[in-house]
Structure prediction request, 69 residues.
Amino acid sequence: MENGKDYHFTEREIEVLKRIVMGKSNVEIGEDLFISYHTVKVHVASILRKLEVKNRLKAGIKALVEGLV
Prediction:
C-alpha cells in the first residue's frame, strides 16, 4: 500500500471494493461475481470495518486516494 498500511483484504473483498468504487449496488455486485446479495453485504461490512469508514462512499474514496484499486 502507498501509505504503508496493509488492510489484509481477501481477493474477494478487493473484487467487491473495485465494484463499490465503480458505483455498483450490492445486487449488481452479486450478479457480477455470482454470489448472493447477503454474501455481498458481509464483504461490504468487512471492507468498511477494515478501512475504518462508515459508508460505501467513504470506502470508495479512501480506496482511490490510497491506491487500493
In short: The CA atoms of residues 25 and 65 lie 21 Å apart. The chain has a mean pLDDT of 94. Helices lie at 11-21, 26-33, 37-51, 56-65. The radius of gyration is 11 Å.
